[in-house]
Amino acid sequence: MKYTLTVIVLICFFHTNAQEFKSGKIDQDWFEKTLTEEQLEAPAVFLEKYRDTNFEYRDNLDGWTLFTTIHNVIKINNTEGLEYGTHKVVLQHQGRQEEKIDRIEAYSYSNSSAGVERTKMSRSEVIDNKLNKWLDEKVIVIPNVKVGDIIEYSYRVESTYWHIKDLNVQEDIPVLHAYAKIAIPQFFDYNVYVKGDIEIVPKLSVGGRTENFSTEDKNPFGGRTQRTDFANIRFKENISEFEFSNVSPIIKEEFTNNIENFRSAVLWELGAVEMSKGNKVNRAKTWDQVADYYYEQLELSDNLESTNFLDESSQALKSKHSNQVELIEAVYRFIQNKMTWDEKEYNYDTPDLRKAFKDGSGSSYEINVLLVALLKKVGLNSSPVMASTKSNGVPLYPTVNGFNYVLAAVVKDNEWLVMDATEKNAIPGLLPERIMNWEGRLVKQNGTSKGIPLFAKKFSSQKTIVIASVNTEGIATGKLRVSYSNNLALSFVNIYKPAAASTREKILAKEFESDLITNPQFKFGTLPKSSTVSFAFEDDTSEIIGDKLYILPQLFLSATENPFTLEKRSYTIDFSYPKQIENVVTLNLPVGYAITSLPEAIEINLPGNMGVYRFKCSSATGTSVQVVRSLSINTTLIDAKLYEEIKKFFAQIVAKEKETIVLVKK
């Protein structure tokens, strides 16, 4: 994927004595800082962002600990910016590994005729939330925040995970000035990646440090003993310093996969650690090393082999199905019906396939690894696929942290077929939209891996048939029927099937932008069969001027707004999957009126056969009009370089669909 963001002015100089400023010392000068028009019009603006990340060595039992200090100052410009008065920090813990937070300070500052008034946050205004078994949350609530105030907060996170958090150069609001320093001991080898279009030029240097290393013996139970040995060791430290000024915020745009994929940032991925002299443990230098990591650290190999509890099920399935296609379908349906997704992507803590199978519930890891195991047991070639949901972003480099979901793949007709048994309404080869995210990584037991595209291979269709009559007052009444296939059908079923009748009607009215819908009838087909909805409607979009009646050919189905309105586009356009939207409308005209004009037929093509729009309006008898309109999007992703073409394409569609059938009284 190519990241395309608006290039902004970047000041890459470094203060000679760049250091953290003290908390609680905001004065009048901060309120008088010169801000650009963009910074003044934003909900809020970072006046200062400071970060320091470094490692300290505890002892041979605790090892290296990662410390990150954060200190931010934000000016609140309007009511939308008040949300920045609450800051959340998520902390992870698992076994001996954990993240802790300390040194929390927060203040609000108001500027009045009497001077700058400071309010300090009390400890009671720090809220502790438990998100789940592995994640806690600290919520810093800054007191008495009002529009025009400056807020300040600082804290330090202590972590034994060695995972350096991303450095976001670009935020949701403008940044006046930012400084960050990342210091990494020579024993850690991190892969460093940059995303976004902002030029990021760090100041690199190598420093020397002396650390007091202590060694403690363990007792038979793994605890500490009284004996402690000490040694001073001098080592090198690789230092990266980043400084930015006047950074524009990231802009959210329609038809964007995940805005985080385009945010300018620096990312660190731990590639190797030198545990002792000459003993380097590789973690994520190549995709094959990533595959090894998943099989070893996440116990994929053990979980796939320790599945004798599936023997009875596999024998039953093999006895009923011998054809490969039928067997794949049967195994998939068995796991799909047996298991219910707990809506957790992973369960890396203690993935227990036996327990998950017994309980009939589990994470994407447990459900789809069970699917892989059962496919293997019936004699099929199957492997797990590590994937990342759209909300998690796109892993573009070898990473063990970039994946948050597991899929299953099986060889069918010499090709890999990817499946997700967490989705109750899907079929083999049809993935839910949440996981249609670039490509996954198929990991084999022999330690190799390969990229697997996660884009839809089949077109999804939406076909609408309308039969309506228009009266002399321009009111159209009629019936409408829509049928959906593939991913559009999956989305339709997932939205409407679990909803109550009253809720369905509200969703339907919003989707079709009409409050004049009555008697909706839903038919939820089992894929690959289509699903349908039909309803009666009344439409008042026609207009009478003098003795003429102007009717929109597609009534309320007409496109009236271009979804692409920005002057320039920075991000790849994501249509989710190839699709065809077709409307076939028959309008019976009112008695006493004659056709004066009909919109002309048109065909509009996008370059490279990426899409086509066709529109035809005709009348064979003069008493009715037939309209056939189709829009085909033949590709999932379109480069932002073609934005002008896309914008023009949809502008032409809107212009055409605003044209009216003109009738005149006889």
Automatic annotation (TrEMBL):
Lineage of source species: Bacteria, Pseudomonadati, Bacteroidota, Flavobacteriia, Flavobacteriales
Pfam families membership: DUF3857, Transglut_core
Signal peptide: none
Origin species: Dokdonia donghaensis DSW-1
Name assigned to this protein: DUF3857 domain-containing protein
Record-annotated DUF3857 domain positions: 69-197
SUPFAM superfamilies tied to this protein: Cysteine proteinases (SSF54001)
Domain Transglutaminase-like per the UniProt entry, residue ranges: 316-421
